[in-house]
């Protein structure tokens, strides 16, 4: 399933991160279909070629978004994805993270490593100052990833986002460059 991938933007011991391409559609959508049980009821990434093209296009072309694939270095397989949405420049220099692991990679620490790489890229070459994560209170895996990466819990937003047919509560987590500079 993996294909020859473009060069990584950043690499760790087990994974590298790179931007989405339209050519990633077949692997991405196959992995989504294999991961339905893992994602439900929290996440509904695209599972058809048409839906992938509509999803990936803005991540590729819109300057207010940046999409990253987390790929296993051993074989280039896509382990998951991390997107920075709602990027605001100027005095804010902030973006909101969304992410998902694929079933074959879940629980192996690959997304944790990938998130560290994305954070470094966001605070480095992208010159962002703040990253936010909003996760549903019952999504323990997503909350553990945020907590493990050093994000600070900042609050609770009732009925924040429309997911799976209803307005869902979310916990707000954030990380700033100053927090990364602490020992």
What's the short version?
By secondary structure, the chain is α+β, with helices and mostly antiparallel strands. It contains 6 helices and 8 strands. The chain has helices at residues 25-34, 36-39, 49-61, 110-123, 140-148, 177-180, and strands at 10-11, 15-19, 66-72, 78-88, 94-101, 130-135, 152-163, 166-176.
* Main structural class: alpha+beta
Radius of gyration over all CA atoms, rounded = 16 Å
| Strand ordering within the main sheet | 1-2-3-4-5-6-8-7
CATH C-level category: Alpha Beta
As an assembly, this protein is single chain
> pLDDT below 50 for ≥5 consecutive residues: which ranges?
1-5
What is the count of helical runs?
Answer: 6
DSSP E strands, number: 8
Beta percentage is 25-35%
Cα end-to-end separation: 41 Å
Major beta sheet summary: 8 strands, mixed
Order of helices and strands: EEHHHEEEHEHEEH
Question: Superfamily at the CATH H level?
Answer: Gcn5-related N-acetyltransferase (GNAT)
**CATH topology descriptor:** Aminopeptidase
The CATH architecture classification is: 3-Layer(aba) Sandwich
What is the overall shape? globular
Helix content: 25-40%
Total count of domains: 1
Average pLDDT, to the nearest integer? 94
General description of the model:
This protein has 183 residues and is an alpha+beta fold. The chain has one domain: Aminopeptidase, CATH 3.40.630. It is 30% helix and 34% strand. The chain has six helices and eight strands. It has helices spanning 25-34, 36-39, 49-61, 110-123, 140-148, 177-180; strands at 10-11, 15-19, 66-72, 78-88, 94-101, 130-135, 152-163, 166-176. The protein has an eight-stranded mixed beta sheet, with helices on both faces. Helix 1 crosses helix 3. The longest helix has 14 residues, at 110-123.
